Amino acid sequence: MAEPFIRIENLTKRFSISAGKRIRKTGFTAVNNVSLNIERGEVFGLVGESGCGKSTLSLLVLRLLEANGGAVYHGDTNILELPRRKMRRIRRDMQIVFQDPYDSLDPRFTLERIMNEPLQIHRWGTGAEREARIDELFAAVSLDKQQLKRYPHQLSGGQRQRLCIARSLALSPGFLVCDEAVSALDVSIQAQILNLLLDLKDEFGLTYLFISHNLAVVKFVSDRIGVMYFGKIVELADTDELFDNVLHPYTAALLSAVPDPDPFSEKKRDILPSGVPSLIDPPGGCAFHPRCKYAGERCARESPELRDAGRGHLVACHRLEC
Amino acid sequence: MEAILKNKFFVIGGGIVLIISLLVLFAPLLTSYDYGAVDLPNKQLPPGAEHIMGTDLYGRDVWCRIIYGGRVSLTVALGSTAVALVVGTMLGALSGYVRGTLDFVLDRVNDVLMAFPMLLFSLVIGVVLGSSMKNMFLSIGIPIIPMFYRIARATAMSVGGRSYVLAARAMGGGRMRVILRHIIPNVLPHTLVILSSAIGGAILAEASLGFLGFGIPQPTPSWGLIANDGKTYMFSHPWTTAFAGAFIALTILGFNLLGDGLRDWLDPKIRTAAKR
């Protein structure tokens, strides 16, 4: 593997909740000390249930939210310390596709204006060059350029997501964050968009941070997978290794939740008790212990570190240490 | 677009506003008198063939003064609403999008503005600045800034959280760009609904100030001023005040109906409720 392209170090984000008045402040940690490397040219998948901090992490990596601590290296530069001007330049290389294609496009803009926006912001090329670039991008995502004068509401969900992808690629970024990029689409369209993303990766030499709550989707696209729970990475391994050798009980539960296409299979599901613990009043020790069937006395006491269990398979669980 | 023409409020309100605007616009063609010409022998005549709305205390033709006076009243109303629209929308969009300390401060200032009785506030500004057309824009415009500020702020807060705004930021779009290209265009349709009733309110405010003697000074007529001219003899010779008052009321009614019509048309929830 090449040198890490995006390196995240001890990234932390706390949100404060001012309950009514500005007197008593409580808060919670949405992303807690997360470190991970994304190699150039790979697809790094990030899974976890709703509210575990996946999307917050994606916003932090692109500095659309300011972190409370840690660093995000793009090559050698820590983007969290860059002044605004330099940050703007580096944004050309880091783009994002959001979950909801209905929410990601300004309803008052025509497709043409939507596509021109990133090019205008970075004063890219002349009018004719921009037009040619938009044609090229539309061809890459299989959209009809006859539609340029239309408005987003005249497109289907799949077309809108193609448009979002085309827009995000306008400035030829190297790194693309897909934040639940297919979750809002129909299953048949999901497959199309996933294949499109993989094709574009080869065509433009992209690196992805692919975020989803759907383990099957992540398995399909990712080279490596990180499993996030309660703001922390609890398991991280190559895709094949993770699926062959599940170490963390949370990952096991996620896996058993993936629907089985065979209606007669009698798979035993590993159903987790109750919901995610309160973020405002987090459990002590390992955050997963109230829902873990293996939880012991030590789990309630101390939080496990992320350790290498061999072959680059990282896991944070006390069960594997003794 | 056809649907709105079926809305009775919109059609009646729009009709009233249109007719009054035309009367005011073509005032020189609709009267042969001079609004300032004093003709004491013919003072306080009742409506008749010569003077369709009679004459006032100084023998000036009331119809002539009213249609010319509409120019002043409408200009002041439109100008002051424009001031409030621009300032209120800009500040509201900024406040709602940027949030934080700026929002906290602007919102408290807004609370203070709203705490003053509107007419009193206009009077104070008018007295401090002196009375001229431009100052009337400010003295009537400033007190109605909160109407626009609040709508712009609320909409900016909701639009600011949309993914397309995040996407624009991810592309490197700065605050001003996001506010001008994304926030304000999405705020304006909401503002449109109150714009019409704000103009009605401004006409009323101008008339009140004129009636109290704080409007544009004599001899330039404005509706408030004309009403004021007639008030001393209101019971023996009611024409002057009555006609001026009728025009004020009619115009405000027109703008309010227009605003209601627009609101019904733009808000699908009310639209469906009305059909039931």
- Class based on secondary structure composition and strand pairing of chain A: alpha/beta
Percent strand of chain B equals under 5%
N-to-C series of helices and strands of chain B: HHHHHHHHHHHHH
Which runs of chain B of at least 5 residues are low in confidence (pLDDT < 50)? 272-276
CATH architecture of chain A: 3-Layer(aba) Sandwich
The main β sheet of chain A shows up as: 8 strands, mixed
**SS class of chain B:** mainly alpha
The shape of chain A is globular
Task: Report how far apart the termini of chain B are.
Answer: 22 Å
The oligomeric status of these chains comes to heterodimer
The major beta sheet of chain B can be summarized as: none
CATH homologous superfamily caption of chain B: MetI-like
Q: How is this structure best summarized?
A:
The complex is a heterodimer of chains A (322) and B (276). Chain A has 322 residues and is an alpha/beta fold. Chain A contains 10 helices and 12 strands.
Structure description:
The complex is a heterodimer of chains A (322) and B (276). Chain A is of the alpha/beta class. Chain A has one domain: P-loop containing nucleotide triphosphate hydrolases (Rossmann fold), CATH 3.40.50. In chain A, 30% of the residues lie in helices and 23% in strands. Chain A is built from ten helices and twelve strands. Chain A has helices at residues 54-61, 84-91, 111-121, 127-140, 157-169, 187-204, 215-221, 239-244, 249-256, 297-301; strands at 4-18, 25-39, 43-47, 69-74, 77-78, 94-97, 175-179, 207-212, 224-229, 232-238, 307-308, 314-315. Chain A has an eight-stranded mixed sheet with strand order 6-7-8-3-9-10-12-11, with helices on both faces. A four-stranded antiparallel sheet of chain A has the order 2-1-4-5. Chain A is globular. Chain B has a single domain (7-25, 51-268), classed as MetI-like (MetI-like fold, Orthogonal Bundle). Mean pLDDT of chain B is 88; it is low at 272-276. Chain B is mainly alpha-helical. The longest helix of chain B has 37 residues, at 62-98. Chain B has 13 helices and no strands. Chain B is 74% helix and 0% strand. At the A-B interface, helix 2, strand 6, helix 3 and helix 5 of A face helix 9 and helix 10 of B.
